[in-house]
Predict the structure.
Amino acid sequence: MLSPKSAETVRLTLPAVAAAIGEVTPLFYEKLFAAHPELLRDLFNRAHQADGTQREALAGSIAAFATHLLDHPDERPDALLDRIAHKHASLGVREEQYPIVRKHLFAALAEVLGDAVTEEVAAAWDEVYWLMANGLIAAERRLYAAAGTPDGDTWRTYRVVGRVAETADVATFFVRPTDDRPVPPSLPGQYVSVQVELADGAHQIRQYSLSGQPDGGLQFSVKRVPGTAGAAGATHPAGEVSGHLHDHVHEGDTLRVSAPFGDVVMAEGDRPLLFATAGIGCTPAIGMLSHLAAAGSPRRVIAAHADRTPATHAFRDDLRHLVDKLPNATAEVWYERPEPRTTATGPDATGSADGRTPTVRQGRMDLGALEIPSGTVAYLCGPVPFMKAARAQLLAAGVRPADLHYEVFGPDLGL
């Protein structure tokens, strides 16, 4: 991996680079977008640029990659690279964009660290950059080839053939290709990128989990992101793409949609499965449950979900129906404010006729209250604090770290 000379230089300079990376990444994006404004307009998520999460994710990934090279010189951090590569492929990132990123990233690094960036230091970190970039390029080539688009153009035009309001702020869109080609294959748990043209002419892209498997089309669900007031009077603007989809996209309209991607997919086999989700994080789990139900899977399945109220719980009826189709599945639900008669110490009075589903509790999700079978593979999706708590509970219950998988809606700061 890293040459011995570069490894020693990176080891000596990593503390300084890590300390400065919080200054380097904002400056990098400033330089990048000044030279290529079309990237901010049509490729990068403007909301994540505004709130700083994309900068944090970039800084964290660089530091994590460099640290891994030093601590495990004979291994490549495939988990980190695979997740980034799937996101890049869903956006249509191209190989020729990596030298552009390198140019502005190193210009920012030199400006922040000044004379500390000697030729030797620059050469060592250049080696780190291209080890990471070439690993991503190779992974993205494989993903594009598997999607049948070796040129990297996975975008197609789809027509909205149906739209369903799951809750007051969650809508499911059913889309079919406008050409005669078949729908690209997908794996349970994957997502698609959706591109819309906004009022200012920008073509913004967001990723949405596939929430079902309709014949001849794709199905994804979108939660409207409201504007919120933060600490000290700070405000977070409403989601511009989710708002556009909710307000302006209806049956008969067209959308640009990517092929499905995503590295968090359901493991095949017969091991027990547990889905721990909160809020709109239920969408990939519903997609996985749909796949299991269609196959008549005999696997032991626990579907655990947390939400504010029954009214905000998207796919509440689907959860019950899908679990009822599986012979060894149960649903466990926690509501902060449950409706009268929905809280039970046993099966829910409004559940299925066989009495298996669902069990409804009040408060925050407590996976320690469940009997979790040995060998369980768990999938987590929801707000990051929720997933941290769920992960800790599952580790305490004996689930192996290698069997804990999570999906993040947005930049993965955990990596």
